[in-house]
Design a protein that fits this description.
By secondary structure, the chain is mainly alpha-helical. The chain has one domain: ABC transporter involved in vitamin B12 uptake, BtuC (Orthogonal Bundle), CATH 1.10.3470. The chain contains 15 helices and four strands. The strands form two sheets. The protein has a two-stranded antiparallel sheet with strand order 1-2. Strands 3-4 form a two-stranded antiparallel ribbon. A hairpin with a 2-residue loop joins strand 1 and strand 2. Helix 3 crosses helix 14, helix 4 runs parallel beside helix 7 and helix 13 packs across helix 14.
Length: about 350
């Protein structure tokens, strides 16, 4: 018997490259490479201040990206998350602001209803902050329910539904405060976004939501339903999956995650800002897609989203430390998203070849 031919060095290199490319830890490897490169390229990168600052940037983005992950798994998309952040920021602040300038807010629909010169309606109440937080989350859930019903029952494409919702909700946020920011929020609310060294309340919220979401995807029947809908909604329906209800619940969770992120963002900037979520959409989509969640549906993990968020935060930090002009940053992120989408296509083709 002749011995089996040994693979050549080229074949071994190609095999190693394919294994790395197909690895679910690919983005983590890239994060490590980028971090090491930045450590040597910039003396500022490794400072405790910079690391703490980047971690504080990561937590709210992770929260909102987790919600987007669920939607992408069912082959949907939610373009309204940024607008939800803006609207809920305004609504939460309108309950607890400690003062309001009548010259600025007299024409606002909130004046003499929620906002007054001596403070918001619950500015002096012990229950003010909890009520504001609950109101923000409820508004998010209502917007998510509208998106889900329109997609599941009216069968309008999710891109169109969430785009229109985004436009309406963003405009409503600006209308409610006439483009002004609601300032002078309580110190107790600002604690949510404050950093205590490397620890913060935002970190607890982000890790908690991520862990629960990961358990739902990996250990519950609802998680299996999400993947089955993303892979083949018709087959999922025939198999007994309540497709419409799952779609509605998924969009509700996405908007809930956006509202939860809004709580963190609002506390960090210490004001209700009607344009707070405007610049977030590109980062949200980028983080989830870079992590490996497929735009075609049926594939994604919370762990991958965590890797994608870390990569995007590191990328933003690198561009900042290297003094890249602001107008180039969006271009770079767009190229990275395109690369991630191409990588997803390549991975799918390689996976089919292995079957």
């Amino acid at each position: 018997m002749t011995a089996a031919a040994q693979p050549s060095a080229v074949d071994r290199a190609l095999g190693l490259g394919r294994r790395i490319l197909m690895s679910e830890y690919l983005i983590l490897y890239l994060c490590i490479v980028m971090a090491v490169g930045l450590f040597f390229a910039s003396p500022t990168f490794g400072t405790s201040y910079n690391i703490a600052n980047q971690m504080s940037n990561m937590w709210p983005l992770l929260v909102i990206a987790v919600g987007q992950t669920f939607v992408l798994i069912i082959a949907g998309i939610d373009l309204s998350q940024g607008a939800v952040v803006s609207l809920t920021s305004v609504i939460g602040a309108a309950f607890i602001a400690q003062s309001a300038n009548p010259i600025i807010f007299k024409k606002s629909p909130l004046w003499d209803k929620l906002l007054f010169e001596d403070g918001a309606i619950l500015s002096d109440s012990v229950m003010g902050i909890p009520v504001a937080i609950i109101a923000m989350l409820l508004v998010g859930l209502l917007i998510g329910a509208f998106n889900g019903v329109a997609v599941a029952f009216a069968r309008i494409p999710p891109f169109m539904v969430t785009l229109v919702t985004s436009m309406f909700v963003a405009a409503l946020a600006i209308y409610l405060v006439k483009t002004e920011n609601i300032i002078d929020l309580p110190d107790a609310f600002a604690v949510i976004g404050d950093d205590f060294g490397f620890f913060s309340v935002a970190m607890v919220i982000a890790i908690g939501i991520s862990l629960v979401a990961a358990l739902v995807l990996s250990r519950t029947i609802f998680g299996r339903w999400l993947y089955s809908i993303g892979n083949n909604p018709r087959a999922a329906l025939v198999s007994g999956v309540p497709v419409k209800k799952v779609i509605v619940a998924t969009y509700m969770f996405s908007a809930f995650a956006a509202a939860a992120a809004s709580i963190i963002y609002t506390s960090r900037v210490d004001q209700g800002r009607p344009t707070l979520g405007a610049p977030l959409l590109l980062d949200i989509i980028a983080a989830v897609v870079i992590g490996g969640t497929s735009l075609a549906g049926g594939r994604g993990k919370i762990m991958w989203t965590v890797f994608g968020v870390i990569f995007l935060v590191l990328l933003g930090n690198a561009l900042s430390l290297l003094n890249v002009p602001f107008f180039y940053i969006a271009i770079v992120k767009g190229v990275v998203i395109l690369f991630a989408a191409l990588l997803d296509v390549l991975r799918r083709r390689l996976a089919l070849q292995q079957v």
